[in-house]
Amino acid sequence: MPTTPSSIAIVTGASSGIGAATARHLAAAGYRVVLTARRKDRIEALAEEIQAAGHKATAYPLDVTDRAAVNEFATAFKTVGVLVNNAGGALGADPVATGDPEDWRRMYETNVIGTLNLTQALLPKLEASGDGTVVVVSSTAGHATYEGGAGYVAAKHGAHVLAETLRLEIVGRPVRVIEIAPGMVRTEEFALTRFGGDEEKAAKVYQGVPDPLTADDVADTITWAVTRPSHVNIDLLIVRPRAQASNTKVHRES
Ligand code: 8X3
């Protein structure tokens, strides 16, 4: 493992889905995980669950878009081994012609500015570890567009560009930048949030798709990338279910 087993791994958006699964996996790999998300009850319950399994976890309620709160959060650490920028998500699936600019703004705020806030605040601490890793959980939406996706696609392209640029800018310093770009992942909240709680629309996303990825699949991928020897930088890893050949070519059985 590149950083010492007891080093700190901070996971944003750890209250559900990929973030929660990543916290579990990194804790099992030996990291002291710090769970952050807005929903205090959820991250506290997860921290207790991880502790009950014999691992180290603490919860810290945080809104990644609140820059002052993020800066305050960062003061709690001297060194940090891993930062997983996972907080984000999609709002709406409207065409460009009718998309809500407020949705677009909020998606940019969480997916890009949130990642910027955490990364800026923690970069000195990651560097101080002598062996830090920044993970950006982007999306296949950060690499190609699809109809109805523009607001989310634009935001995830932003997250991708942040990761690529940061890697260029800090080369030579002891911090890796890893981008994990998941495709179709069925989690309890992603599609439901996107469609404002409309369960029917959310279910349609995965309808007939044999075995979409799970949050555990992505957490496993993140943990694998993070635990490579420190001279190995997995720049970008695109992970999709076998049934998804591209953002727009999905095999459905019904
Ligand atoms: C999720 C992938 O296809 O919903 O990040 O944009 S998709």
TrEMBL record:
Native source species: Streptomyces fumanus
Record-given protein name: Oxidoreductase
Record's keyword terms, sorted: Oxidoreductase
Family, as annotated: Belongs to the short-chain dehydrogenases/reductases (SDR) family.
Listed InterPro entries: KR_dom, NAD(P)-bd_dom_sf, Sc_DH/Rdtase_CS, SDR_fam
Record GO terms (molecular function): oxidoreductase activity, acting on the CH-OH group of donors, NAD or NADP as acceptor
Pfam families, A to Z: adh_short (PF00106)
Domain Ketoreductase stretches: 7-188
PROSITE patterns attached to this UniProt entry: ADH_SHORT
